[in-house]
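Dear support,

Our group has been running a series of protein-ligand predictions, and this particular one with succinic acid is the one our PI (initials K.S.) wants archived with full inputs and outputs. We had some confusion internally about which version of the output was final, so please treat the block below as the authoritative record. The input we submitted was:
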Amino acid sequence: MSDYSLNLHRISPHVGAEVRDIDITRPLSNSQVSELHRALGEFGVLFFRDQRFDHDAQKRFGRYFGELDIHPNTPGPEGHPEILPIHADAQSKIIAGEKWHSDVSCHQEPPLGSILHLHTVPPLGGDTLFASLAAAYDALSPRLKAYLEGLTAFHSGERNYRNRNRLNGVDDRGRVFPSATHPVVVRHPISGRRGLYVNRLFTYRINEVSEEESEAVLNFLFQHTEKADFQIRFQWRKDSVAFWDNRAVQHLAIWDYFPHTRTGSRVTIKGERLAA
Ligand code: SIN
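Confirmed final output from the archive:
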């Protein structure tokens, strides 16, 4: 793309670009990092092929963009608390990300982004869908945009994490999971674009209206944001990497490959409080 020295290829009208001819497993220059940062803000999700990350290289890449987060529910492997293992096989009862969501939107300061590397992929399937929050917002009518102005929503990790723990046989009694209130419409800290920041996994209710109205409005917004028009569907290969901005997209992992195995690891970059 003309104003980047990175070899970037846009792959859908609203969201997603593939970055070619770069080895992100090795140290990067300042100009590469600043272009990747700009591209992330512009495209919402960046894809890379043939990147053989080990945990240290994946953490080094993540740290170019901010401090790494430690997941509030799932501990990382020995010596790598910042690594979130992503794994499904014939024994799995649930997978990560099977409902549309922005990662850990229940944090007071939700993550800037997530970097997922898969080293084992199923023979077919296991794609991830990404949807642009700005494209979804832009497609709303001016009347609905005016209605949403100034509204906030309550997000919590309680339901999602307890459900996962129950299915995985993890005793989480006594644990407290994060919760937060965010604007329903947020302004993206890099691009300045407005986006719909509600998702099925973590958003419970809109605070300023009755429960009944909140449920109806949220259901509409969930369905609207998940429309195919705003999406890109990424087909993984061994050693593909996806780097997404959680304030620009929400995503969904498809579990259509059971009983095959799909394995990799994610690092998550800390973010900031979101502004309306
Ligand atoms: C996630 O939500 O981070 C998992 C995404 C995936 O496995 O494709």
